Amino acid sequence: MRTMERKNISKILHETIGWGISELRGRAAQADLEKLAVGEYFVSQRPVYVSQLANADKRSISGFYGNISDEKAARKFGASNNKIFSYWSWRSCGIVDIQMILKTLYGPKFKSTTMDLVGEGLKLGGYNIDKDEGWYHKSISELAKSRGLFSRTDKFVPSVEIATNILKDQFVLASVKSAMGHLLLVYGFRVGKKGKLEGFWVHDPNPFYENGEGKFIEKEVFDTIFSRRVIIVGRKDEDG
């Protein structure tokens, strides 16, 4: 019981301090947005879209997080069989976000499959299969670095600060609330009068329920799902 109480107290203190830090950072970022003209802003190279389900035929999917019986999609994913494909496809959102960035920045030179990157991430200790709780953000960041990119993780990040990362030509993997955790690739935003942030352009790597490519999410909606944790990725000479 005492251990549980300490954890609860620690969580409350962490969240309270975190909100304070986030509020201060938000004010600084907002000042930068107020200097912008009304319009839309994007990273210099808009990312290509990759589906973590490898464009599998919807009729071959038994349900969300279910079995996928599509050998063509499994091959495209880089998996040797449907069982491996079915397991990792549902658990590769962050990996696919990195894949989209690599395909965008490196072009035809980049030929690795999603499964190749999953394997690299596992070698970095990025996923605990026994606990099956999602990828560690630090390992996803290390994966990006191992491929020659700049990357860092951050927490207590206000959504307006994501916009300032975009202005620095940095991609942002934004953690959003989900049972298993989920990462959206943010690559653009819209700002209105007086620097009011209106929303973000994102690629959602999981298109099971709806098309995930080039979605615009209004700020009010984004803030309800955003965990304030991010992975920032850019070219190596852009250290923020």
What's the short story on this structure?
The protein is of the alpha+beta class and 240 residues long. The protein contains eight helices and seven strands, in the order H-E-H-H-H-H-H-E-H-E-E-E-E-H-E.
Can you lay out the helices and strands and say which pair or pack?
Layout: H1 2-33, E1 39-42, H2 71-77, H3 82-89, H4 93-106, H5 114-123, H6 137-146, E2 149-154, H7 159-167, E3 171-176, E4 182-191, E5 197-203, E6 215-218, H8 219-225, E7 226-235
Antiparallel strand pairs: 1-4, 2-7, 3-4, 3-7, 4-5, 5-6
Give the end-to-end Cα distance, rounded to a whole number of Å: 44 Å
Low-confidence stretches: none
Number of helices: 8
- Judged by helices, strands and strand pairing, the structural class is alpha+beta
Q: Which band does the percent of strand residues land in?
A: 15-25%
**Pattern of helices and strands:** HEHHHHHEHEEEEHE
Instruction: Give me the Rg, rounded.
Output: 18 Å
The overall pLDDT average reads 93
Spatial shape: globular
What does this protein look like?
Strand 3 and strand 4 form a beta hairpin. Strands 1, 2, 3, 4, 5, 6 and 7 form a seven-stranded antiparallel beta sheet that branches. This protein has helices at 2-33, 71-77, 82-89, 93-106, 114-123, 137-146, 159-167, 219-225, and strands spanning 39-42, 149-154, 171-176, 182-191, 197-203, 215-218, 226-235. The protein is an alpha+beta fold. The model has no long low-confidence stretch (mean pLDDT 93). Helices cover 40% and strands 20% of the residues.
